[in-house]
Amino acid sequence: MIISQLSIAPVGEGTSLSKYVKIAIKALDNHNIKTKTNDMATVIETADLETLFNAVKDAHNAVINTGAKRVITELKIDHRLDKEVYIGTKTKSL
Amino acid sequence: MIISQLSIAPVGEGTSLSKYVKIAIKALDNHNIKTKTNDMATVIETADLETLFNAVKDAHNAVINTGAKRVITELKIDHRLDKEVYIGTKTKSL
Amino acid sequence: MIISQLSIAPVGEGTSLSKYVKIAIKALDNHNIKTKTNDMATVIETADLETLFNAVKDAHNAVINTGAKRVITELKIDHRLDKEVYIGTKTKSL
Amino acid sequence: MIISQLSIAPVGEGTSLSKYVKIAIKALDNHNIKTKTNDMATVIETADLETLFNAVKDAHNAVINTGAKRVITELKIDHRLDKEVYIGTKTKSL
């Protein structure tokens, strides 16, 4: 699986962002992918890039659709081909 | 336009990454989008998210296709709706 | 408190990075700061920037000291002054 | 030299950030380090981590001192020990 880290935040809509995080997570959930949100980002597990990018696009657009005038989205993809990895695999090996 | 910042790097293929940067840039260039590479990342200007994600997917896959066993891709999207922005706009206002 | 997200990884030392993650976490732990590691990064809670940067410097140098020839360290700092925030605060409000 | 990528932005102070970018760059300039600002970040060249962290701390605090209530700072450090690298080296090899 591809493990990714996503954060989406509007700029200029006040300092409280939890409303937008909820909206983004709801959009991800529509894609039936495994996600785990921590204090700084949401970790996502997907079988392929296509599924990931579709989910990220929907989450980004969901925040845009709140009327936010500037949105910063950050995605870090860790794509490993030598080993099958899932959410939880990396922290288990620590 | 949407202004983004992209970096793609294999892990475990040696310390020299310029070969992979060239491959990623070549893949981006096939999409006829404006890009500008600096010492740490490539800045990309696209009209929409669709075009951006298609280009990033191709660049990521081009590095995967070299045989790299683990690839880290990082994308930061700055999507502004209150003002038309291009590559060069932000540095000009400094 | 300042909430940050840290990842430290050597480039060119193979695809398995868990050994280096352990070394970095051990270095952070010497600073008696609260940390929580997820699949993509370690979240850190510190009272000030000074403490954070000292801990990050030690963790980065600990990975350098393994003999790694190229190390990429990524730090994202979320510094909020309008509200007292701790590890767990942000996910609780979701 | 250590090559880094820095971005500092307040959240909740409007969508226009160029004022804050200027303040951060001015703080970096006080450290007599080489910097090069692009559309998404500022690339920094420093001899060591100490110099880098002192400069980043000043730049972060300069944005805090404008009265911003939440500031996000992102730093990516590329520390290479097998080869001497400067700003411009990496793009020249492309």
List keywords for this structure.
3 helices, homotetramer, 4 strands, alpha+beta, 94 residues
Could you please describe the fold and organization of this structure?
Chain A is of the alpha+beta class and 94 residues long. Chain A is 34% helix and 31% strand. The first copy, chain A, has three helices and four strands; from the N terminus they run βαββαβα. The first copy, chain A, has helices at residues 18-29, 49-64, 89-92, and strands spanning 2-10, 34-37, 42-46, 70-80. Chain A has a four-stranded antiparallel β-sheet with strand order 2-3-1-4. In chain A, helix 1 crosses helix 2. The longest helix of chain A is centred in the middle third of the chain and has 16 residues, at 49-64. The mean pLDDT of chain A is 96. Chain A binds chain C through residues 3-5, 15, 18, 21-22, 25, 36-41, 43, 76, 78, 80, 82-83, 87-91, 93-94, and chain C through 3-5, 15, 18, 21-22, 25, 36-41, 43, 76, 78, 80, 82-83, 87-91, 93-94.
Distance between the termini of chain A: 19 Å
Described by the principal axes of the CA atoms, the overall outline of chain A is: elongated
Helix content of chain A: 25-40%
Lateral arrangement of strands in the main beta sheet of chain A = 2-3-1-4
Radius of gyration of chain A: 14 Å
Strand content of chain A: 25-35%
